[in-house]
Design brief:
This protein is 87% helix and 0% strand. The protein is mostly helical and 379 residues long. The two termini are 38 Å apart. It is found in: Membrane. Belongs to the UPF0496 family.
Length: 379
Amino acid sequence: MMGAQSSRMGRGDVPTLIKMGTHSVYADDLSSYEAACVEDPNLQSFDATIQERTNRVISSLAEGVEVRSMSVDSLKEMTASLLEMNQEVVKVILECRQDIWNKKDRELFSLVGDFFENSLHTLDFCNALDKCLRRARERQIIIKSAITYFEEESQNEVEGSVYLKTLQELKNFKEAGDPFTEEFHQLFQSVYSQQASMLKKLLSRKHKLDKKLQSLKTLKRVSNVIFVAAFVSVLIFSVVAAAISAPPVVAAVAGALAVPIGSVGKWCNSLFKKYENAIRSQREVISSMQVGTLITLKDLDNIRLCVDKLEVEIESMLQNAVFAIGNEDAVKLAIDEIKKRIEHFSDIIETLSEQADKCSREIRRARTVVIQKIIKYPG
């Protein structure tokens, strides 16, 4: 590859190149470039182009050295080659999607703001659910009282209406109605839509970050292209200086450009690492919000399922209560049906209460995790 080729070329008539290829300042960077060429076919193509043009320039200059002169054609060849190499660099850079350098962290922190706002709305929903559950327990007490009164009044049958207390409790149950108001259902739909929309945004952002991570290989190619282009430029200028037999100029050029060449590889690698760390940090924040949002959506799905079951049980008992109120002879039949459902009704209330507590805990935990990620996020 280019680094090895440069060292071999340095063993010829231009001693300066030996230092350039094997000097500790560049050795690691050239080795890294060679390794990247082995793994990256696109970089191999660039390297082949660079080698061909560099060899062409060196050969042309070598001819000039043999006659102890520098031809105009040689100078033209050198200039054209440098321009071509710069164009190759531009081409590779343009092919890389570097939009992350044009977008600050506004989008990320906008998502973070939405996440925290949505979590607060969901906590409000959990509070509303607790109120509904309190009303459901009140209805549970009423219906259990109706069952208790029915058992007492069934043992003390007298002429006339024998189920006065039972029927009164059934009327109270009917008047209490559904503990889950229309406002509660609207709040649920609003919160669920917000969380679903949030998940969609997070998945989209994560997909973009994943694509950026996948393109890091291309970015690494860019850094290697920049490095080798700069290296070859110095290589050619050194040959030019040697060809015109001006040792002071050789020393001056080598000395002046040693620092830039030595630092460009390290700068590219530093930029690459910084870029990778920034993407991975963003991805960690996004992933933590995604996990929290997924858990919340799952909790909301479970809550909706339990609410639906509870409303089915309430509706069934309400129908039996109405039936008994309108037909006193049907009280026993109605109470028997209610007895079959009251245990399931109580179990659903407890399950729903546990789901509400779990949802609240998970939301608070997710908020804590995201805050920790933001604190660790590189400034």
